[in-house]
Specification:
This protein has helices at residues 27-36, 70-86, 104-116, 147-171, 179-190, 202-207, 211-217, 260-263, 271-285, 331-344, 359-365, 377-390, 401-405, 423-432, 467-476; strands at 2-5, 11-16, 46-49, 57-61, 91-95, 136-140, 196-200, 225-231, 240-251, 292-301, 313-314, 322-323, 348-355, 370-374, 394-396, 414-415, 440-444, 450-451, 461-462. It has 488 residues and is α/β, with parallel strands linked by helices. It folds into two domains: 2-145, Leucine Aminopeptidase, subunit E, domain 1, CATH 3.40.220.10; 159-475, 3-Layer(aba) Sandwich (Aminopeptidase). The strands form four sheets. It has an eight-stranded mixed β-sheet with strand order 7-8-10-9-13-17-14-15, sandwiched between helices. The protein is elongated, with a radius of gyration of 24 Å. The mean pLDDT is 96. Bound molecules: ligand BES, manganese (II) ion and zinc ion. The site of ligand BES has 15 residues, from helix 11. Ligand BES binds at residues 251, 269, 326, 328-331, 356-360, 417, 423, 446.
């Protein structure tokens, strides 16, 4: 689908508030829509008059003015796109209105995103490729063709390319998406955009002392890779926001093996790292101004004669020893070394880690919400604002010293798995230990990163969450984060 500006096509798409007069329809059609079809402009409702002899019009309801937000615009545009697609419309012009309190550029972005969200398909493994009907969507800017619409279009295209790159990385099965491939794609996609990408092999990882990361990787035939991506438009000497992504290209559970049902979607256990690649892609593509570094410890959690076992006591780059209570709590082991690297080896102003870390997070918050743990409420608030603007739900877990105490082990400094209760929080607090008191936020995306059914305007499979939040946070944040460490 191509998006253009100000082109006049025969088919028109309009959006209306609930009970707004349908001035775009003729008197007869207006009566018919209102009285016979009972179309009132409620949220998610559609009136379509398409095909030969029709008025060539689609009207999508936005619901009540009081309930408007950018996700309403995205969803309405997405419903319009789906309606055009099922009716095999090739091209259409979209007319959008101004609403009090909503910035024109941001509204345009949201509508454009809603259309583009319908464009993603993962058909690499299908013998019959999907052909989309809708070819061109023309957005008629609110106040004539102005620069702000062009900027909105360009920025949204960059963001959605990043989101779709993340989706592709996550959807690709682990047989074709293992550490070496992930690293190669990071190099191929980012190098041309002014991002410096370094890939460390097993020897270099050993040299750095990443014993926790290496223990997890031990059971796999695939070599682990440590990937560092630097986009530093402010200069190398200035601090960067560092994004650390969990990069388990497959999580079988190891010797604490997962049942078949739970293992099925574990190709998606690198969704955190894929979101880091996608976000940095979008940030660099759109030439945003802040320094950002991405870090990924990529490996597979498998079984073999050499694999790590329940009851092993392993080391880590920081020197902390860890009792491996459960080989399936592997993400926090790889992240321990990656976060410690972020805190000590690069110039990080703050650290955000993104991980499909715990089933407990999905139990606690459901499938649609990212769970957060933090040591810095100011930093969290900024991430939360970015998530609201992006329409990606986020919620903060509480964390107290009683929970930190649960991580203490008898014969090692820490253990990698505690009792059943509060599993998403204890996992987060395990990571906190390796952030070296840098402002840090942990995002557990185990629920929303991957969906069997898709929801709203998101496709089945990889959703691309939280690329938009990360992009928004890095692109906008110029406020220095208070380095004061809040324990609770
Ligand atoms: N990758 C899983 C978490 C996960 C579960 C992601 C479901 C997406 C959907 C993680 O490595 C894991 O296995 N966590 C364990 C931790 C437990 C052993 C302490 C879990 O959540 O059961
Ligand atoms: Mn696991
Ligand atoms: Zn995992």
């Amino acid at each position: 689908m191509k998006i253009v500006l100000s082109k006049d096509f025969e088919v028109k798409v309009h959006f209306v508030l609930e009970d707004e007069k349908l001035t775009m329809l003729s008197d007869a059609k207006r009566d018919y829509a209102k009285n016979t079809l009972e179309f009132k402009g409620e949220k998610k409702s559609v009136y379509a008059d398409l095909g030969p002899g029709s008025d060539n019009i689609v009207v999508v309801g936005l619901g009540k003015y009081e309930d408007l937000n950018h996700d309403v615009f995205r969803l309405a545009a997405n419903i319009a796109a789906k309606t055009l697609e099922t009716n095999k419309v090739k091209e259409a012009s979209v007319i959008i209105n101004k609403y009090d309190g909503y910035c024109t550029r941001k509204m345009t972005k949201s509508y454009i995103e809603g259309f583009l969200q319908n464009d993603y398909i993962f058909d690499e493994y299908l013998s019959k490729k999907t052909v989309k009907n809708v070819e061109t969507i023309s957005i008629i800017p609110i106040e004539g063709k102005d620069e702000s619409a062009e900027l909105a279009l360009e920025e949204t295209l960059g963001i959605m390319e990043g989101v779709n790159l993340t989706r592709k990385l996550v959807n690709t099965p682990s047989m074709d998406m293992y550490p070496e491939v992930l690293a190669k794609i990071a190099v191929d996609e980012l190098s041309g955009l002014g991002v410096e990408v370094e890939v460390f092999d097993k020897d270099k990882i050993k040299e750095l002392g990443m014993e926790a990361f290496l223990a997890v990787a031990e059971g796999s035939e695939k070599e682990p890779k440590f990937i560092v991506m630097k986009y530093l438009p402010k200069g190398e000497d200035k601090p960067a926001i560092t994004l650390v992504g969990k990069g388990l290209t497959y999580d079988s559970g190891g010797y604490a093996i997962k049942p078949a049902d739970g293992m099925y979607t574990m190709k998606a256990d690198m969704a955190g790292s894929a979101s880091v690649v996608g976000a940095i892609y979008a940030l660099a593509k759109n030439k945003t101004e802040n320094n950002v570094i991405g870090i990924i410890a990529a490996c597979e959690n498998m079984i073999s004669g050499g694999a790590y076992k329940n009851g092993d006591i392993i080391g880590s780059m920081k020197g902390t020893t860890i009792d491996v209570v459960n080989t399936d709590a592997e993400g926090r082991l790889t992240l321990a070394d990656a976060i410690y690297y972020a805190a000590t080896k690069v110039n990080s102003s703050c650290i955000i880690d993104i991980a499909t870390l715990t089933g407990a997070c999905v139990v606690g918050l459901g499938e649609y919400t990212v769970g957060a743990v933090t040591n810095n409420k100011d930093l969290y608030k900024e991430v939360k604002k970015a998530s609201k603007r992006s329409g990606e739900h986020l919620w903060l877990f509480p964390s107290f010293d009683e929970m930190r105490d649960l991580l203490k082990a008898d014969f090692a400094d820490l253990k990698n798995s505690t009792g059943r209760w509060g599993g998403a929080i204890t996992a987060g607090l395990f990571l906190e230990h390796f952030a070296e008191e840098k402002p840090w936020v942990h995002l557990d995306i185990a629920g929303p990163a991957y969906s069997d059914k898709g929801w709203g305007y998101l496709p089945k499979g990889a959703t691309g969450i939280p690329v938009k939040t990360l992009y928004d946070f890095v692109a906008r944040k110029d406020m220095p984060i208070d380095e004061k460490y809040h324990k609770n």
